[in-house]
Amino acid sequence: MNISTGAHVMQGATRLAAILAVLARHGLAGMFEKRFGQTLSSEKDEQWLSRTGMINPRHLRLALEELGPSFVKLGQLMSTRADIFPPDWIEELTRLQDQVPPIPFPRIQQIIEQELNRPLNDIFKTIDSQAIAAASVAQVHAAVLMTGESVAVKVIRPGIRKKIQQDIRVMVALARRFEKLSESGRLVGAVNVVREFERTVFKELDMFIEAGNMARFAQNFRKIDEIHIPGVFWDYTSRSVLVMEYVEGVKMDQVDAIRAMGIDPEAIALIGLRSFSRQLMEFGFFHADPHPGNTIVMPDGRVGLVDFGIIGYLDDTMMRKVAELFLGFAEHDYDQVIEALHHAEIIDGNLAENSEFQNDLQDACEPFYGRSLKTISAKDVYDQIMKLVLTWHIRLPRNILLILKTFIQTEALGKILGSSASLLEQARPFAIKLVMKGYDAHKISKTLGRDFRDLYTHAREIPRWTNTILKNLSEGKQEIEIRHSGFQNLDDRLEKGINRLTIGLVVAASTIAGSLVLNSSQKIVEFTVDFLGHHTLSVTGILGMTGYVIATILGIWLFISIFRSGKM
After folding, report:
1. Residue 531 pLDDT > 90, yes or no?
2. CA–CA separation, 188 and 93 (whole Å)
3. 167, 289, 335, 363: the active-site residue
4. Residue pair 69/137 in contact by the 8 Å Cβ criterion
5. What is the pLDDT of residues 322-347, one digit of tens each?
6. HEC sequence for 141-202
C-alpha cells in the first residue's frame, strides 16, 4: 500500500470515528452495534427505534448539523424525498440550518487572487471584508469593480470539495451498513440516496454552472419587467468564484421594510406566484430554492432572484404532463389525472388500471371538491399526494419532487406577505395555455419533425447494431432466445383438419362405391321382398344403398361441423 492510499485510509477511519461519536451523542448509532460490538444508543432512542422502526428525526437533524456541510446538504436532499421518507422526517429535515460562521477575509482574498490570477486591487475598487451571507459551502461579499459596478462576490469555501469527497466515501460505507442492519434502510434505499447526493452536490460547487443558470434565467425573463435576474461578470468568474450584479433591496419576508418602501406586499406575492408558474409552464426551467434569502424585493417594486445553485428542469413532454395533471386535479377529472401520471411514467399500466388505486386517488381529491382554487393551499395538495405516494410505494422523479417542494415554498412566501392568493389559481391560466399549445399546427409540425429526425438517426444506426449483434453471436458473447406463441393448439387443429379430410375421402369413396355396385350387371344372391308389392333385391344392391346412406350421413355431419366452426 502506497503512502497516499494509506493516508486516505487513515483519514477515512478518523472521520468515521468522529461521525460515530456524533451519532452516539445524539443516540443514533444503535444501528451500527453489530459492526462495532458496543451499545452506542441511549435507552430512550432504543425504545423509539423498536417502536417505530426508524431513528428519531429530531436527533437526526441535530446530528447532521453538527457533522458539517456535507451532511447538512445530504439532509437537505433527504427533505425533498417525501416519496421515501416519512412525514415526521421531512418536517424535521426542512429545519436544517445552512448558516455557519464566515471564513476570515484574508483566506477569501487568497482564493479570489488564485482563481482569477490577479491581485485583488486590480479587480475591485472596494470589497467588504464582512460577509453579507455565509452558508456551508460558500460565502458572499459586497464589492465595487474598478469599472464602478456594484457586485456580489460568491466564493466557494477552501477545501470543501475534498472534504465532501471524503465524507461521501464514509456516507456510502455507513449507508451500506444501514441497509444490511435495518429494514428501514432497505426501504428508503440509503445507498441510492447517497449516490443521488453525490451526483447533485458537486453541481452546487461549480460556479460556472450557477453562472450559466443565471444567464439562462436572464434570457427567459428578458421581456418580463417585474422580475430581475442579476447579470454575470464572466471575466471575473471561475469554478470557485462568481462575480454577479449586486441586487439592492430587502428580503421578501421583511414585510415592514417592504411597506416602508411604499410597496404593497400582496402585489409582491402575486409577482412571485406568477414568476414560478411561468418558470414551470413556459420555460421548463425553474428556481428550486425560493426561500426569503434568495428572493429580494427591489426599491422599484421588482423582485430579484439570486442563488441559482438548485435548479429544476422539465422537457416539453413533461411540462405538458404536469399541466395536464394540474388541470385534471383542478377539475376533478380523475381519468385525466391517471392518464397524465401514466404517460409521465410516474405509475405503470397495472397501477393505472387498479381499481383500489383509482378509489384512493379519488378519496385524495375529494376534500377539494366544490372548493375554489383560492381556498386550496399547495400544502394541502402536497399532503394528499404524499399520502397516496407512500401508500402505493410510488417513486417520484426528482424534478417532480422539486416542483412540489417549490410549490410549497413559493406559496409560503405569499402567505408571509399577507396574500390570500392561491398558487393553483395563479398557475391555471399558464397550464391551460401550455396544454392548448401542444395542439397548435406549429407545435405538431415541430414534434413530427423531431420524431422524423429521431427515426432517421435510428435507421442509420441499424446496420451498426446488426453488425455488433452478429459479431457478438459469432464470438459467443451473446445469445438469442426465440419465443413463439400462438402454436399451443396447433396439434388439435391439425388433427381436426386431417379427420375432416379423412371423412371427406370416406364420403367420396362410399358414394363412388355405391354407384359402381348399383350399376353393376352382376347380381349376387337375388331374393324377392313382399313390401308394397313384389320387389326383387340382391346383396349387391343392398351394399350399394348402404354406401350411399353412409356417405350421406357423413357428408351431412361434415357440413354441419364446418358450418359451426365459422370457417366455411
Report:
1. no
2. 15
3. 289
4. yes
5. 787 777 776 777 787 888 888 777 88
6. EEEEECCCCEEEEEEECCCHHHHHHHHHHHHHHHHHHHHHHCHHHHHHCHHHHHHHHHHHHH
Residue 366, burial from CB neighbour count under 10 angstroms (0-12, 13-18, 19+): exposed
| Contact in structure between 26 and 176 (CB atoms under 8 Å) | no
State the residue for C-alpha cell 399547495.
378
What's the CA gap between 217 and 258, in Å, rounded? 24
DSSP type of residue 232: B
**d(Cα 487, Cα 494) in Å, to the nearest integer?**
11
392 three-class SS: coil
Check residue 8 and give its pLDDT: 55
Angle ∠(385,429,421) on CA atoms, nearest 5? 65
Q: Nearest-CA neighbor of 424 among 439, 435, 410?
A: 410
Inter-residue contact 14 to 163 (CB < 8 Å): no
Picking from 259, 287, 254, the residue whose alpha carbon sits closest to that of residue 272 is 287
Report whether pLDDT(206) > 80: yes
CA dist 557 and 554 (Å) reads 5
Is 206 annotated as catalytic? no
Closest CA to 379 of 368, 395, 390, 370: 368
The three three-digit cell numbers of residue 566, written as one number:
365459422
Q: Distance of CA 362 to CAs 332, 334, 347, 564, Å?
A: 8, 7, 16, 47
With 0-12 / 13-18 / 19 or more C-beta atoms within 10 angstroms meaning exposed / middle / buried, residue 222 is exposed
All three cell numbers of 193, joined, read 440516496
Please report which confidence band the pLDDT of residue 558 belongs to, taking 50, 70 and 90 as the band edges.
low
